Amino acid sequence: MIGFAGALSVYFGLAVSAGFNDCGAREVAQRPRDARAIAASAVVVRLAVAVVAFLALASAAWLFDKLATVRMVVELTGTLVLLPFARHLVGLQGARGERALRCGSDTRATALRRSGRASGTFLGDLSAALFLAIPLLGLGRIRTDVSEGLALLRSSGFLVLARLLRTVVFSFDVVLIGLVLGEHQVGLYTAAYRVCLVLLAVAIALHASYLPALTRASFQSTRDVARVAERAVQLAATVAAPLLVGAMLLAAPLLTALFGPDYAAGAMAFRLILLSVAFIFIGGAVHNVFLISHRLRTEMGVVGVAAGTNVGLNLVLTPRFGLVAAGGITACSEGLILLLGLLLLRRAAMPLTLRPVLRPVLAAGVMGTAVYAVEQRGSLAQSVAVGVITYAIALAGLSGVPEDAKPYLRKLARRGCSRPALNFRRGPQPATQPAAAGADELSG
């Protein structure tokens, strides 16, 4: 029930998220002095949009031929589209906001234990929003120009349509399974999706961190844009390859460990959804290039083609072949988005090469061989440990460690070394390493 409600609510949540994050990041990169006013205005506009979105969802919930319990879960889940706006206030509140968010998360965990899943999620997220609102009162006066938020909303029109179409690609199958095959099949399918959503959050955070650098590079030359985008692809592939290959090999034991033995039946669909996540990890860089070059209409067309293909294939194949067909169609749709995006960037004289993906994929292949050998005889924990060690050795042996990751690895190595003899360089070390300076620049 929760899986069906979440898939339905995300369509209305799109109106709340809109393009505020991506377009807002672009505006802040161009006008850093106005960052506080841009963020405050965006929050006000998002709150107004959220109220309208929730009323629309509450009305739509009663149009489905479902039990009253399912309708109530849809409404409770839909209420959560009102609450994420408060989380963005953390950026305005600093450390106090982060402490408030932790308090809200603790309250959510307590509510989940005491009140059941749907109502617990609702009460927990509501508590988190209230905890965030309290310290906001002590910030003093913030200049809020609603026109800033409205301008972001208008500029993100094509981005919202592209997100809507991408949501069709990623969740139409869930809604269709719920309407045709029932809640039991949705439960198997969305259990796999929950793991993939964690990985998607990693992909989104990774590519969001490169967006300011890409925006600055766009003021110089397409060559600089391509260079930054390839760095993002390299880091994304390095992070994604071991996670996705390992999860594919350990799909059944992983689902069993997380949700119970009944969910192992969704292992094959899980593997196919993971393949779609792999395409998204790489496609995030393509999306950023479309964004900073103001080619959102082109991206919308690409996603529209994939969404139409997805809906057509799902209507024909999913009712007959079930979860495996739905997972395979999602993977094909995401692969089509990536392929068309790369081709259109090449036509626009902004080619993006995938050479940085090669070494992480080869290292993940070596890791997969070791994990497969251990998985036949060992436990899940042993397989994960062997995978981590093997991947690290293989990646280092192939010289595939991303340049952007090396400063952080050196910092970790220095912190872990308690004796001077373990330093990588001989002789006294300067107070400020160039690598550390590069790490600070990347963090900025």
Structural notes for this entry:
Helix 12 (222-249) runs antiparallel to helix 14. The chain is mainly α and 444 residues long. The protein has 20 helices and no strands. Helix content is 80%, strand content 0%. It has helices at 2-17, 20-30, 35-60, 68-79, 84-87, 90-93, 95-115, 117-136, 146-155, 157-180, 183-218, 222-249, 251-259, 267-292, 296-321, 323-347, 358-375, 380-397, 406-416, 434-443. It is globular.
Keywords:
globular; mainly alpha; 444 residues
SSE blueprint and pairings:
Blueprint: H1 2-17, H2 20-30, H3 35-60, H4 68-79, H5 84-87, H6 90-93, H7 95-115, H8 117-136, H9 146-155, H10 157-180, H11 183-218, H12 222-249, H13 251-259, H14 267-292, H15 296-321, H16 323-347, H17 358-375, H18 380-397, H19 406-416, H20 434-443
Helix pairs in contact: 1-3, 1-4, 1-10, 2-3, 2-11, 3-9, 4-8, 7-8, 10-11, 10-15, 10-16, 11-12, 11-14, 12-14, 12-17, 14-16, 15-16, 17-18, 19-20
Helix and strand pattern: HHHHHHHHHHHHHHHHHHHH
E-strand count: 0
Bulk shape: globular
Number of helices: 20
Distance between the termini: 42 Å
Q: Which spans of ≥5 residues are poorly predicted at pLDDT below 50?
A: 85-98, 103-116, 418-444
> What about the largest sheet?
none
Helix-strand category: mainly alpha
Radius of gyration: 23 Å
Percent in helix = over 70%
